[in-house]
Amino acid sequence: MTERLVSKLHVALLSYDEREIRVRKNYLEEQNPAICCVCFHSGEELLRELRQQRSVDIVVLSSQLEDMDGYEFLKRLNSLHNRPLLLLQGDDWYSDATASFLRPDGRQYLPERSSLLDLLLDLRSSTDIGIFWVLPFCKQLYAEWGIQQPDVNCEYLTTALQVVCGTERKLAVRKEILQAVAEEHHTTVAAVDCGMRRLIDGAEKYNTEAWQKFKQDYGLMGHSVTLGKLIYAGRQKLIDSGTQGRKAGR
User: How many degrees, rounded to 5, is the angle at CA 180 between CA 45 and CA 84?
Assistant: First the structure.
C-alpha cells in the first residue's frame, strides 16, 4: 500500500486479561508505527464504541471477556452495520458453535499463528491485498470522487470489494457478489443493485479528476461503467496501490 493509505491501522484488542493485551499492544506498536491499538476488557464497551462509529479496522478477540462470552459477542457484533474485520485467535474457536456465527463475507478470520504482527504480514503477502486495507482505501477513494460520507451506496461497494478481495476466483456479480452484499446489509439484491448504480451516477456527476483518472487507468473510458467493471476495477486499483507501496518501501 502507499504510505498515505496505511498511515494508521486501528486495531481493537479484546480480552479480559489486561496483561495479555497490554503486552500485545506494546509489541505491535513498537514493531510497526502504522499500527494503533486500543485495549478493551468489556465486549459492551467495544460494541458501544463501534455503534458510535469509532475508527476500528480490525477487532482481535483472543480470550474470554469480562461481561459476556465470546459467542454472545460474535452474535452482537454480527448485528452491527458495517462492522470491522474480526480475528479470532486461539484454539478454542475451532468448533461447530463458532462456525454458526461466522459469515462468508470476508470479515472474519481464524489465524493459524498467535502473533498479530505475523498474521498481518501473512495476510498481506498471501492475498496480495490484505482485506483489512479495504476500508481505509475506500474512504480515500470516495473522498477523491467527491462523494460525501456517510453514504450507504458507498458502503455497498466497500462490502463488494471485501467480498472479491477474499478470493482469487472470479465471482458472478449478481448471484455471488451482490447477494453477499445484500445479506450483509439486510436488504435485497435489487436495492444493492440500484444503490451502486446511484453511486456510479454520483461519481459521473461530480466527475472529479480522480474519477476520470480511475476510468482511464482501468479501461472504463468511453464505456458504460457497469457494476462488475466498477467492482473489479476497484479491486485492481487496490492491488496496484499495494504493489506501488511495496516498491516504494524497498
Answer: 25
